[in-house]
Write a structure and sequence with these properties.
Length: 732
């Protein structure tokens, strides 16, 4: 990881971030990145005191596992963690933060241990009568020691030998600084000499007091050891809790460091998305003192950045990779978070430096080939390549790298490439998966603008750049003459050809889209017509039924010879006849000979047309039918039905749990895929995957696979009793 950090010039920025951590830890936070992002976002709303510096406790936990005895200073590190979580519970947090803190319940036996220590991590005297007595005796002995030293210093006999009137502490012992010959007036032990040749002397009467002090301190150490044994035995009993609270503290520490770091520099967090599109708006690289903001919109597989020397191409490349790196580890940055989006890439690779060094014993091109060969083994990656043709002939390199890029396009990767040479970029320019960015140049002032134009290949402005950096104008003129106008015109012609082809492709895409839209519109109109005709047919049918019913009533009335009923029925029949005129509401469709039409359930071809009638050929039968009964249609070829027999054998033995500990990622995914298939066939609706915690890599791979599996409805970390963060529960 340090390699990519150094290549992207993020080392100083991230070293400063580490100062906000209570204890050093990896940038990666184990678990669901969206969950972490929400906690960090919520924590940013509160004002609270950051945690104290805490030592790494892995060795202490390992020692307890073997029933070892911890020193008091090691025990106090655990006490500091518990004290801090108790502080957080009282701070007025709400929602999920408060729920999280309240879940960390400290067992009563351990909670009592917190009361043993003062703020400096020393045992309180009042917890033990013997300890209180020793501390009192030590205090009295200290006072007696000071008084004895004062008396010696004020002695007239010794005044001639005193180099100064100070009490000096040499190796924790109180001593006087005396000139030579002091032994005539005072007895004592020499414990050192000053640079001026004087002697550090501990008087004999002081020595007795020091011996007494040593005796008290020895007894105090015995009492301390008694408590170290007692507390260590309690800690061993609650070892699982200590591991849990130590891990939760690391998690909170990772959150709070990011919060305070972001506030210190007014930085923003950018949550990576599942899509691999790259939209960066106003990113400022932290390595630059007065950075110009970088914006880029990159939704294709390859981005070619060409154009002027020293125009910001490399910094654009580093900026894109830096945004991806910082968002991957939820590290804040200067960016417009509302308009920016970036994918969560599994790997971030940067091929930036010249690998040729004396100790490497390798050429530039050979070193580059070693790095390129590794790219074919990775997926879900963002790759940055600076000066792609570095180290060899540009024409040969263009051909080679075109083939390389053709293969890499097939993989799940995004590639950002910078180059000064036009051949490779012109060969790749018209690919659908390739985007072009050109660094712009201010020709009037002969300066790069550090801005970029989308969709074109930029000019290098080598002559102008050389002149700006002090190359004699005579040399530049000769170089231009040698280069020639024809070469310049050829470059412009190539660029115009590329621009023309790109414009043509764009217009073709627009035309295809318009054609699709028109087809959809046509299908929609046809559907509306068909529905309207059906509605009309239904309406006509209902009226015909009513007409038949009324005629029947009329006949019945005629039998009864009731003129009143007959007139009533005739009125109803006349009203129905009027309503039947709705038949002419729908306009007749225009037909021509050869149209395929539908008549009822039959399909046929028009072979003759008259004013209101057509002659159809339906399966060899000639029919004469009204025009208003026809609908235009198309011929559909019938597909032969293919019989498919599928036989699924249920697994002979099955389990709801799989253990992936110690497996490589590929092996684990293969076994997990088969296990899920067996579980689905068996009929399980829930399984448990045990992958452990470790570095978090295996857990990450498993969860990424589960996100893409079509049968997985949901998954989450297992309860503590089933493995906690070291296992995942999957539901189908």
């Amino acid at each position: 990881m340090q390699t990519i950090i150094n290549k992207l010039d993020l080392r100083e920025f991230l070293e400063y971030f580490k100062t906000f951590l209570s204890r050093e830890k990896p940038f990666f936070i184990e678990g669901d990145i969206k969950l972490h992002y929400n906690f960090i976002k919520e924590l940013s709303k509160y004002d609270f005191t950051p945690p104290p510096k805490i030592s790494n406790l892995n060795k202490s936990l390992s020692h307890l596992k073997k029933f070892g005895i911890l020193k008091l200073y090691e025990i106090y590190e655990f006490v500091k963690i518990m004290n801090y979580f108790e502080y957080l519970k009282r701070m007025g947090f709400k929602g999920e933060l408060l729920e999280w803190f309240l879940k960390i319940e400290i067992p009563e036996e351990i909670n009592n241990i917190r009361k043993y220590f003062d703020e400096k991590g020393e045992l309180k005297s009042e917890i033990d009568d013997d300890l209180l007595s020793i501390d009192t005796s030590l205090k009295r002995n200290k006072e007696a020691l000071r008084e004895a030293l004062k008396r010696v210093i004020n002695s007239k006999k010794l005044s001639l030998y005193l180099a100064d009137s100070q009490i000096h502490y040499i190796n924790t012992e109180e001593a006087l600084l005396l000139r030579g010959g002091f032994n005539h007036v005072i007895k004592g032990s020499v414990i050192g000499r000053s640079s001026a040749g004087f002697f550090y002397v501990v008087p004999e009467n002081i020595r007795k007091l020091k011996d007494k002090e040593a005796e008290y301190l020895s007894k105090k150490e015995e009492i301390k050891y008694k408590y170290e044994k007692l507390i260590s035995s309690i800690f061993t009993k609650f070892l699982k809790f200590l591991k849990y609270i130590n891990k939760e503290f690391d998690r909170f520490d990772a959150y709070q460091a990011r919060v305070f770091f972001a506030k210190s520099k007014e930085l923003e967090f950018l949550l990576p998305t599942n899509k691999k599109d790259i939209i960066i708006k106003d990113f400022k690289h932290p390595a630059l003192k007065d950075p110009k903001s970088v914006s880029v919109d990159f939704d294709k597989k390859i981005l070619f950045v060409t154009g002027v020397n020293a125009g910001g191409k490399t910094m654009l490349l580093k900026s894109i990779l830096s945004v991806a790196f910082l968002s991957k580890y939820l590290l804040p940055m200067k960016i417009d978070k509302y308009k920016s989006k970036i994918g969560n890439f599994k790997e971030i690779r940067a091929i930036l430096d010249d690998p040729q060094k004396v100790k490497n014993d390798i050429s530039t091109f050979a070193g580059r080939m070693i790095e390129f060969s590794k790219l074919f083994r990775i997926n879900q990656a963002l790759i940055g390549i600076d000066e792609i043709e570095l180290g060899t002939d540009s024409d040969e390199a263009a051909t080679l790298f075109k083939v390389v890029l053709d293969e890499l396009i097939k993989k799940d990767v995004r590639i950002v490439i910078t180059t000064h040479h036009k051949k490779l970029s012109s060969m790749m320019a018209t690919y659908d998966d390739v985007e072009l960015y050109a660094a712009l140049y201010d020709e009037k002032n002969r300066l790069p603008t550090y801005r970029f134009l989308k969709g074109t290949i930029g000019k290098s402005y080598a002559f102008e750049t050389a002149l700006r950096y002090g190359m004699p104008i005579g040399i530049i003129k000769k170089a231009k003459e040698l280069y020639g106008e024809e070469q310049e015109n050829l470059s412009e012609l190539i660029q115009k050809n590329i621009d023309l082809e790109l414009t043509l492709k764009k217009k073709i895409k627009e035309f295809d889209k318009r054609e699709q839209d028109l087809q959809k519109e046509k299908e929609s109109i046809s559907d509306i017509k068909e529905k309207s005709q059906k509605k009309l047919d239904d309406l006509m049918h209902s009226y015909e039924l009513k007409y038949s019913q009324l005629m029947k009533e009329l006949k019945e009335s005629a039998k009864l010879k009731s003129s009143k009923d007959i007139h009533r029925s005739l009125n109803k029949i006349n009203s129905i006849k009027k309503e039947l005129k709705v038949k002419n509401v729908m306009p007749l469709q225009d037909f021509i000979i050869g149209d395929m039409v539908k008549y009822g359930n039959q399909k046929g071809k028009i072979i003759s047309l008259k004013k209101d009638e057509v002659v159809l050929e339906c399966d060899g039968i000639i029919l004469r039918v009204p025009k208003n009964k026809l609908k235009k249609t198309t011929v559909f070829k019938q597909r032969k039905k293919i019989k498919t027999n599928i036989k699924v054998n249920k697994p002979k033995s099955s389990s709801i749990k799989i253990d992936l500990h110690g497996m490589y990622a590929q092996e684990a995914i293969e076994k997990l895929d088969k296990f899920i298939s067996d579980a689905l066939i068996t009929g399980y609706d829930e399984i448990i995957i045990s992958h452990g915690i470790g570095t978090g890599k295996l857990a990450y791979v498993v969860k990424e696979f589960l996100k893409t599996h079509p049968s997985v409805k949901s998954f989450d970390d297992a309860p503590i009793s089933l493995g906690g963060y070291g296992a995942t529960v999957v539901k189908f």
